[in-house]
Amino acid sequence: MGVIGRCGGGGGMLAGVALVAVLAAAGCMGNSATPQIIYFTPPPATLAPGATPTPGPPPADVSSTIISSAAPDSRWTVIFKKPVIGGVSSAVAAKMNDAVSAKVNSYISSFTSGSLPAVASGDGPSTLDGNFTIALDTPDLISLRFTILTYTSGAAHPVGQAGSINFTVPTGASINLGDLFTDPATALPVLTSKAHAELSSSLASDLSWPSGSIVLSFFDKAWAMTAPGLEFTWSQGQIASEAAGTPSAVVGWSDLKSVIKATGPAGAFVQ
User: Fold this and answer.
1) Residue 23: which pLDDT band, with cuts at 50, 70 and 90?
2) Helical (H) or strand (E) element with 256
3) Judging by DSSP bridges, how do beta strands 223-225 and 126-137 pair with one another?
4) pTM of the full predicted structure?
5) In this structure, what are the phi and psi dihedrals at residue 120, rounded to the nearest 5 degrees?
6) CA separation for the pair 113, 103 (Å, rounded)
7) Distance between CA 17 and CA 3 in Å, rounded?
8) How many CB atoms sit inside 10 A of residue 226's CB?
9) Which of 147, 127, 123, 145 is nearest to 136 (CA)?
């Protein structure tokens, strides 16, 4: 807090206090007047012209590595482009990368431990080709999609499988779909109605929506946070003909506002 305590030159006063200076001068009329003391609070600090504000933490870095393996009897081969997360503390990165490895290994082991046939005459081995895309990468959240294309020797064509993994970046904790909602049971009817409406529009009569009650596990195999909303993807042949590929639907954040937990991982999307 500054003090004005004498009459006369004001060359040393801070800019932006002209009104205070005028009031001070009014108290200095006449030689016998007692100098008036006026206290003032400087304005809030602002950036100097041309200065750049201090940036917040950058998003995590997501790179990749290739996993490849083959059966000793050449029955199957695997190639998987696995995400690798960096740009954060080593402890947090290790936590997220361990979870990614566990997820990728589960996709691979599910394929290789199955009863895959011997290589068909004139055909190649059964194969798994895995890849990922980034749905969201912010300083607070990472959302990754997985696509797994499997081919069984002798089959007519490969089949696509969808998957995902989601993280809270500051802690490296994995996010479950239910973590987003104040009450998953209350959120389920909203997810069901909105996803069904979008899929009905895109797939029309090809949509094979489950009959009876739908549970949260129907949505949680492949879900991702995106800027427009929650994105859900289903594996090939799960809810439509195989010709439809891997169908997806996005439920907008505005439609989810009433069921999203404000203090949860997706709270910032509905504020």
Assistant:
1) very low
2) helix 253-256
3) unpaired
4) 0.79
5) -70, 150
6) 15
7) 11
8) 14
9) 145
End-to-end, the C-alpha distance of the chain in Å comes to: 37
Confidence category of residue 114, pLDDT binned at 50, 70, 90: confident
| Residue keyed to tokens 């993807």 | 233
Q: What is the CA radius of gyration of the chain?
A: 31
- What six digits make up the tokens of 185? 């049971």
What type of residue is 218? F
- Tokens found for residue 65: 């590595």
Amino acid identity at 102? A
Taking a C-beta distance cutoff of 8 angstroms, is the pair 80, 146 a contact? no
Structural domains of the chain in order of their starting residue, each with its CATH number: 2-40 (no CATH), 61-270 (3.30.565.40)
CA distances from 118 to 110, 122, 123 (A): 17, 12, 10
Tokens read off for 196:
């069904």
Provide the 3-class DSSP secondary structure of residue 65: strand
Residue 182: which region, alpha, beta or left (left: phi > 0; alpha: psi -120 to 50)?
A: alpha
